[in-house]
Hints:
Blueprint lengths: L2 H5 L2 E5 L6 H14 L3 E4 L4 H7 L6 E6 L8 H14 L3 E5 L2 H5 L3 H15 L4 E5 L7 H12 L5 E3 L11 H11 L4 E5 L5 H10 L3 E4 L2 H5 L3
Parallel strand pairs: 1-2, 1-8, 2-3, 3-4, 4-5, 5-6, 6-7, 7-8
Helix pairs in contact: 4-6, 7-8
Amino acid sequence: MNMVQLAKYIDHTLLKPEALEKDIIKLCNEALRYDFATVCINPSHVVIAAKLLKDSNVKVCTVIGFPLGANTTAVKIFETENSIKNGAQEIDMVINIGKFKEKNFFYVEKEISEISKVCQGSAKLKVIIETCLLEQDEIIKACEIVKVSGADFIKTSTGFSTAGAKVSDIALMKSVLGESIGIKASGGIRDYETAMEMINAGATRIGASASVKICEGK
């Protein structure tokens, strides 16, 4: 895969709480230069990113219920509506991991489905399941829930928990989901080799802050 092709897999990411407006401007300029799929940023930066990326191929992606997933559904819905209004074209939401761990699968599926309805026709929805906090059977169950919820992607990680994406987790998710929805690998992907391992295992999108380094084959 050449670097131009690889760039279209990447969500160029900056989610640090201390990120400044000048950092977002730099991120967007890099995204335009390399033609990344999206920039992935916190909701307060969506307006400026949407302005900078207007009429380009680069989409604006933001995060909802981030990074813990423990907000109420009503708050996540408001965040989603507000972000779309401000120019977000892709939404990465965190599931309620506590509810999932206690097997309240109805709650988790209903929440995803409600946010999916908000996104319909306006934005793609990616669902972050935080694989590092789940057992293998829980990852399988999460895939099954996301698959029927109306989401466009499942995503491994926030990058703010105990670990990020693992090739073995991507392969497992691919075995469950097939081609039904996209798979985003994120967290700890810092070089070309790791990015390609994730893609070869089944990832259809890569979330990374080291995107420029990755696309330069480093």
